[in-house]
Design a protein that fits this description.
By secondary structure, the protein is of the alpha/beta class. 39% of the residues lie in helices and 16% in strands. The protein folds into two domains: 139 residues, Glycogen Phosphorylase B (Rossmann fold); 182 residues, Glycogen Phosphorylase B (Rossmann fold). The protein contains twelve helices and eleven strands. The longest helix is centred in the C-terminal third of the chain and has 28 residues. The N and C termini lie far apart (46 Å).
């Protein structure tokens, strides 16, 4: 018995579906949960143990369901008798009819809301017919507990990048999928300088070590940030997503734009400061511990810098106080 989830979206879009996938699993705990997605995203969610098995969305042959052609045998075998959730092609009546005819039961819904909900709330609500049980939304918003090997792989990647393994670690992600989602790199630089200088008014005694993450689409933003930074910074360049998840686990603070990497940081429980344009708040992270700050994208506004630095300092102080409390109870 299996539950098959179809979601070909980008990293952040798929990560926003995690509460819904958790609810699906709780509704049928004996099912294998299969995710058809972009290969690197599917592998990530399998490594995070959110799903049991990933499939490459593009190899399924779903295009046959838009026509009168017979579906390939492997697609029919995958879907027959399965619960199917498709956040894909919900507006195509022919596709939805044929998909429903193959599956035992299922939900076909848009991947984004048409009403004033956040995306994760919409996705969670869309699976309500299949996700029986009385748990509240909070049950599906707990940080992902990473396997020990994922955490260790991330630690090794950070050490190879130049982290000393002891100093508080601040990971910056200045990129995003579009320019309209990117805060000015000068803002990232000023925030980094505030938390890296141990004598600074915000950082206090933190003296944080800065790591700049660069993904495949982030080269320009990262290059401009390195040019602007006046404190030393390590570079974590395009690690596999599973490795990145493990690295983010070690962050004392993560500061990033509205991006898939920011969603990943929030999902694995890193103290996350997510910078959003007001128009995109529906895509904010589901993790209850993530701190979302609305800023002006593009041109730098000094009040935004002051607010982000204040938020960063607060998260760092909070993390430090929790660490002291843990040590004190031992």
């Amino acid at each position: 018995m299996r539950t098959v989830v179809l979601h070909p979206g980008a990293l952040g879009d798929v990560l926003l579906a995690i509460p819904a996938v958790r609810a699906l699993r709780a509704g049928a705990p004996d099912h294998e949960v299969v995710l058809a997605a972009q290969p690197r995203i599917g592998r990530l969610l399998a490594a995070l143990e959110v799903v049991d098995r990933p499939l490459d969305f593009d190899t399924l042959g779903l295009d046959a369901l838009f026509t009168t052609h017979e579906p390939a045998g492997h697609l029919r075998q995958l879907l027959e008798g399965a619960r199917v959730v498709s956040w894909f092609a919900s507006r195509d009546a022919h596709f939805t009819h044929r998909l429903r005819s193959l599956a035992a039961e299922g939900v076909i819904a848009p991947s984004v809301p048409v009403e004033p909900l956040t995306v994760w709330e919409h996705l969670l609500g869309s699976v309500a017919p299949l996700a029986t049980g009385g748990a509240s939304d909070a049950a599906w918003r707990e940080p992902i507990a990473l396997r020990a090997d994922v955490v260790e792989t991330g630690r090794r990647a950070l050490l190879a990048a130049g982290w000393d393994g002891g100093r508080p670690l601040v990971i910056l992600h200045p990129g995003a999928g579009g320019v309209a989602k990117r805060w000015a790199v000068e803002g990232f630089a000023l925030a980094a300088e505030a938390v890296a200088n141990a004598s600074g008014a915000v950082a206090g005694a933190f003296g944080a070590q800065i790591v700049v993450h660069e993904g495949p689409a982030d080269r320009d933003a990262v290059a401009r940030l390195h040019d602007r930074l006046r404190v030393p910074a390590c570079a974590l360049v395009d690690p596999p997503l599973e490795t990145l998840a493990g690295a983010l686990h070690h962050a004392t603070l993560f500061l990033g734009n509205d991006s898939g990497v920011t969603h990943l940081a929030a999902a694995v429980g890193a103290p996350t400061l997510a910078l959003f344009a007001a128009a995109n708040l529906a895509w904010r992270p589901w993790a209850s511990g993530a701190h979302v700050r609305v800023v002006t994208m593009g041109a730098l506004a000094r009040p935004d810098v002051d607010t982000v630095i204040e938020d960063a300092g607060g998260l760092l102080r909070s993390r430090d106080l929790r660490a002291v409390g843990i040590r004190g109870r031992r």
